[in-house]
Known about the structure:
By secondary structure, this protein is of the alpha/beta class. It has helices at residues 18-29, 36-39, 42-50, 73-86, 94-107, 114-125, 132-150, 157-166, 179-187, 190-195, 198-201, 219-228, 242-251, 267-273, 281-293; strands spanning 60-63, 170-174, 205-206, 235-239, 254-258, 276-278. The protein has a six-stranded parallel β-sheet, sandwiched between helices. Helix 13 links the parallel strand 4 and strand 5 (254-258). Helix 4 crosses helix 5 (94-107). Residues 1-51 have low confidence and may be disordered.
Amino acid sequence: GTSKKTESRGAFSLRGSPFFYAFVAEARRRGGTRTVFLVQSRRLRKNLREAAEMFGGKKTIIFDMDGTLIDSVGVWNAVDVELVKRIGGGERDSGDLQRQRDALLRERAASPDPYGDYCAYLKENYASPLTADEIHRLRYRIARDFLENVVDYKPRADEFVKALKARGFRLAIATATRRGTVDIYRTVNRNILAKAPLDEYFAPVYAREDVRAMKPDPEVYFRILGDLGAAPAECLIFEDSLVGVESARNAGIEAAAVYDRYADADRARIDALADYRLRDYGEAIEILKRESSE
Length: 294
């Protein structure tokens, strides 16, 4: 049978199980206490996956975009490093800028224009002579080349998307990314178009302008459930960030956390909340194949 944590639809956990104690022993034997997906043995990974059927009873798979489906968080960090330099803030650490950006976007989740607020923050924080609107437009100009030619699917994500579609799953996207950027991914980005064009595989695709409140508010997921006539128990959400996993939890939908190094600062909290934890899409493909053959 399955063994899944049921407390408030919480994350599946090894803690307290024989697998947990076996894992601790294995970690100690190896001389470290690194995270589960880096140190657990093949036997322990197999036990973890078998404890619950990830795709059992699921009909709809919903993906976040930046950092989850596509490898873009680092790109936005590079964009903001260049942006801050151009508005007079000098050289800044990309990790520091990401933390500032993430904290402000979380704080302004209910704002009608959170990225406009972010640019206003940059103006004030770095005493820029440019207006917030000018900074916003400059950010987009800097980003354009990255968005069209650099951003790509995460490794094997396109293969996973095609495997899900071939098995009859409905696929949707729920992203806080602006519609203009999503449209570049849909119609211009050469990497995405060559591998798995968004319009061929996903419907609906919700962007920032399509909802009033940003994640961790679950509005975007409720909108998708309504559009597709789907029940929460029939859905599975793929996210990379803490705010994304929190949003899935707030919607009452199971979440699979896909590893992204830019979310390492929140790793412990992500792992505690997520129902499933994946090192990469290769592991997701293995699970899908195994469950499909049973």
